[in-house]
Amino acid sequence: EMLKKSVMGVFIISLFCSLIGCRGQLRQDVLIMGSIKEYSDRSVILSLSSTLHENSILHVTLKENGSDQIAWEGETKVKEDGYIKYEFKRPKISEQYKLEVLFVPEKQPASVKEIYGESGEYIREDSLGYRSYTYDGKKVDGIVMYGILTTFDKETDGKSQHKSWELVSDFANIESMLE
Predict the structure, then answer these.
(1) CA–CA separation, 11 vs 119, rounded Å?
(2) Whole-model pTM?
(3) Is the pLDDT at 134 greater than 90, yes or no?
(4) Which residues contact 145 (CB under 8 A, 6 or more apart)?
């Protein structure tokens, strides 16, 4: 009888721990969604909404098609409503880029690390775009969302032409959109 109770107790504690992580920390569901507008004057506008806490930092990288070299990198902060509008200029209009929006736990302010963990250990693994990856030689759990910047025939002075794309959690989905 005593044995049954203690086995049950251990089971309940371990179930509780698996649900909330045993530092009493609730795992956070992270969602980053949004769209990209690219213009013929090289400007790009990212409009994102997220469940991330205020002051979370998102990194945005551009990689030339088929390359792992970062051609351009920037960062932006999440506002209190989770919304982000981020505008930047891409390097070249004649080049197609893979765009990545990354939530890198290591690169967050202390107040944000408290919520998501030093290396993302409090992010729910079923969050859209959840990835375990190596960052600066360390294993990190973070979020990566993908987009694309296509080419324009020629650069213009104003935003005369534009195209719009949605962010996706799997880059293969983009390649099929372009076909």
Answers:
(1) 27
(2) 0.82
(3) no
(4) 32, 33, 34, 100, 101, 102, 128, 129, 167, 168, 169
